[in-house]
Write a structure and sequence with these properties.
328 residues, Jelly Rolls, 26 strands, disordered C terminus
Length: 328
């Protein structure tokens, strides 16, 4: 997933001083952003009110879009450092290519997890023959300093663990697929580098449950479809609620069938700088990565098979990237 903003603002994220150490209810409004040729996304993170939730530092929600007779998602080859990308679909397919030689179609409720580490490039596109609807989320996870120069990798997991009524658990009307981390005793096979959780939650109409959560984690919930109520706050599709830390359970209810993304993790202690598709620790890290990409020196490798040129990096700002902290 790329940030296609041609004038991206740099920001310093992380650190515990701005983390809500108690339960809160902060509604995060999305911004509409273009993605490729025909897709518009709703950007929830980074947000003017909140820049990270645990190690989750970037959240785009898109669709459902009717792409019958259209190209659909078309994101040219572009670079990443210092993060993991998570592709998550409810409808449609995304064809992933990367500079490691990976070629994988990601389908609904399958995990496409790419670890950029020191450097990787990839593209994302709707296959030539694709489903009518495209609906999903693209997310980034910041890598801690000890792992940000790790070898790049790509994982695809077609089968993920579930909890809830479908598995005979104690929450009638509730089902969750564990995307990353662990939830209610079920653990995803996706590799993580910091304590976090991501789960796709389905609530049948009339469901009213209290989900056990970790009080040391901060959490946020995004409504993918339907209309839910999270800790008493109504959430329409495309809205995200930040919940802070200190909870041992999370009340969820829905009058009609609804689908949510639950994101959480230990507050990310390190300071990091995020600009365009790069996460580093300084302006120099970002500048070096941009120069490597634009010079084609080989640090990022080559994505083969995409029908089009790679994405050029925006011009660096004339002044050093300004730290803004987790919140503004």
């Amino acid at each position: 997933m790329s940030n296609l903003d041609t004038r991206p603002a740099g920001s310093e994220c992380g650190g515990r001083e701005d983390v809500a150490a108690r339960p809160v209810r902060e509604l995060l409004e999305p911004r509409s952003m273009p993605l490729g040729e025909s897709t518009v996304v709703r950007r929830l993170l980074p947000n003017l009110g909140r820049r990270m939730v645990g190690a989750w530092c970037f959240v785009d929600h898109y669709g459902p879009d009717d792409i019958a007779g259209e190209a659909g998602m078309q994101v040219p080859p572009h670079p990443h450092i210092g993060l993991q990308t998570v592709s998550w679909l409810h409808d449609g397919e995304v064809l992933h290519r990367d500079s490691l030689g990976s070629l994988q179609t990601v389908r609904p409720r399958e995990l496409g997890l790419m670890t950029s580490g020191r450097a990787i490039a990839h593209s994302e596109e709707s296959p030539r023959e694709h489903a009518r609807l495209l609906h999903g989320a693209q997310l980034w996870v910041a890598l801690p300093d000890a792992h940000r120069h790790t070898d790049p990798a790509f994982e695809h997991h077609a089968a993920l663990p579930e909890v809830g009524s479908a598995t005979g658990a104690r929450h009638p009307g509730f089902r969750a697929t564990v995307i990353l981390g662990e939830l209610d005793g079920a653990r995803s096979p996706g590799r993580t580098y910091s304590p976090l959780v991501g789960a796709d939650v389905s609530l049948a109409g009339g469901t009213d449950v209290r989900l056990p959560v970790d009080p040391d984690f901060e959490y946020a919930v995004l409504t993918m479809s339907g209309r839910s109520e999270v800790d008493g706050v109504p959430l329409d599709s495309g809205s995200m609620l930040y919940l802070g830390c200190g909870r041992r359970e999370l009340p969820l209810r829905a009058d009609r069938d609804s689908e949510l993304l639950l994101l959480g993790g230990e507050p990310f202690e390190e300071k990091l700088v995020m600009w365009w598709n790069f996460i580093g620790r300084s302006t120099e890290d970002i500048t070096r990565a941009r120069d490597d990409w634009m010079s084609g020196t080989g640090a990022f490798g080559t994505v083969h098979g995409y029908d089009g040129p790679p994405l050029p990096a925006p011009t660096m700002p004339a002044t050093p990237l300004k730290p803004r902290g987790r919140t503004r």
